[in-house]
Amino acid sequence: xxxxxxxxxxxxxxxxxxxxxxxxxxxxxxxxxxxxxxxxxxxxxxxxxxxxxxxxxxxxxxxxxxxxxxxxxxxxxxxxxxxxxxxxxxxxxxxxxxxxxxxxxxxxxxxxxxxxxxxxxxxxxxxxxxxxxxxxxxxxxxxxxxxxxxxxxxxxxxxxxxxxxxxxxxxxxxxxxxxxxxxxxxxxxxxxxxxxxxxxxxxxxxxxxxxxxxxxxxxxxxxxxxxxxxxxxxxxxxxxxxxxxxxxxxxxxxxxxxxxxxxxxxxxxxxxxxxxxxxxxxxxxxxxxxxxxxxxxxxxxxxxxxxxxxxxxxxxxxxxxxxxxxxxxxxxxxxxxxxxxxxxxxxxxxxxxxxxxxxxxxxxxxxxxxxxxxxxxxxxxxxxxxxxxxxxxxxxxxxxxxxxxx
Length: 406
Fold this sequence. Notes:
This protein is an alpha+beta fold.
């Protein structure tokens, strides 16, 4: 049986960064490299798997138990976030971590420090997989993929392990909010599913943000600075003025728990034109709508001050809070909690301060909570994952399957 570490390292070596500027599905052709690998690995294990034109890998393992267990799905996404480089990943393997600073050797003077990330100290004595400081790692969500594939391999190699029908799904483009846009839930065939896309050990989530994306294009007026008085409209400064209208205490770095935020994720601009891109998040639907309305009011205020058409807003809904769809099937959350407790893990049921494929899948008729994949500091060069956390996640998958088969 291939070790989960070796499997994970193979997967992170493949560049699968999704492209928010692309309209294709999947957004980047390079995502298909890993998705084809996964299809072929499943088929090589004797598991019937397919890859469709949209980049969805779907596989099925027939039931071998006498009970009428529901078909249970496990899903992870293959793409990595556009927020940091995702190519030429060079993982560092830190065995028997001693609790000290870890040098990220690709960048002189860069360290992963417990003084900045105190949760690292929870993993003293374990094996940590980090970046070298030049790229993200890709544990989001290649750790989830490795955990699912490790569980599949165990099932295939242990025919005595009793289970109902098992469905496996791997998706592209989750990181840009389009992970299941064309996912065929009926074809997938699961009654319930779980995404393996959470953070540290014990995380179990069935609530997430309501989410929208907003792009504001500012049209300025460039005039030679020597004769600009009363004529120039600096698009950069106007955009900055609009950003200052948004509440400073509702930024990601100032919020936690159920608190929502406005997050300025990118800016491009010159005097003539500028573009400010935001994501808007809130767990509460009423507060979510209020945030969207405030964004509209800020744009209207800019247009009133500088002239109609100065600021153009393009706001698009991305996903809703899955709680409404999962809570009526709360037994699937209870199964996951028990599956963790069977491994000596204390479940941490909490809201996701983000989203997963499971949010949209839940509204598509497939209730789909989210389970820990084990990683920390996703989307950046400080990302790391403990090997032991991945091993535990894979065991939790097998425990969930066993509980449904009882």
